[in-house]
Structure formats: C-alpha cells, structure tokens
Write a structure and sequence with these properties.
119 residues, alpha/beta, Transcription Regulator spoIIAA, 5 helices, 30% strand, globular, STAS domain-containing protein
Length: 119
C-alpha cells in the first residue's frame, strides 16, 4: 500500500488528508513536501489521519514531527488515526493541537468560532 496526501480547502478551513501506509520512504516526503509547503497560512489547518492504514517507525516519527512543525507556525487541529500506537505517540509528543473525531466535527467546531466567521 502506498502513501497519499491531499491538500484542499473547505471554508473556513484547510485540510491535509493523509492516507495509506507511512513507512520508511515516507519520512522525506512528509518533511520536505507536506510540512514545508503548508507551514504558513491564516486558516485553521486540519490534519486528517483517519485513513492511515499502516505505520512504520520512521513514518510515524516523520508525521509526528510534521505535525509538531506545522503547529509551531499555525493553528492545527488533528483528526487522529485509528492506530493506537501512533495516537499514543501524537498525544505524548507535547503537540499544541486540538483533537477532533473527523473532518465534519472539525468543520463544525471551526464554523462556531467567531474568528472563523470574520475572516
């Protein structure tokens, strides 16, 4: 299974959706392409990991580092993976992100915020 990522907007948020398998070959892709490309922005960025099917150690570490990098530069909300080990790694990595069950819940939360309606 391969790794896929998709970036799109669904007002008032941006969504980074990751799916597939995060193995050894993913770490450079996540770091160089995904994290660097999305570092700056004024919209809430929702990182959706719900469709991730598998994790290797280096892929897990790369995604945790990408979430850390992105959350240091902009507001990030995370739709966590079903994988309990990766969820644990994300929860215990001193990340400053909000957790939301899925994209619809993140969108609902973002629409309820006054700042999202003003911008």
């Amino acid at each position: 299974m391969t790794f896929h990522w998709r970036h799109y907007r669904r007002d008032p948020i941006e969504i980074l959706s990751l799916s597939g398998h995060a193995g050894l070959s993913v770490s450079d892709l996540v770091t160089a392409t995904v994290a660097e490309r999305l570092t700056h922005g004024d919209r809430l960025l929702v990182i959706d990991l719900t469709e991730m099917a598998g994790w290797g150690y280096t892929g897990r570490a790369a995604i945790v580092e990408a979430v850390r990098h992105l959350s240091a530069h902009r507001r990030v909300m995370l739709c966590p993976p079903r994988d309990k080990l990766t969820l644990w790694a994300l929860q215990h990595s001193d990340l400053t992100v909000e957790m939301c069950a899925d994209i619809d819940a993140a969108l609902s939360r973002a629409e309820q915020e006054p700042a999202a309606k003003e911008g």
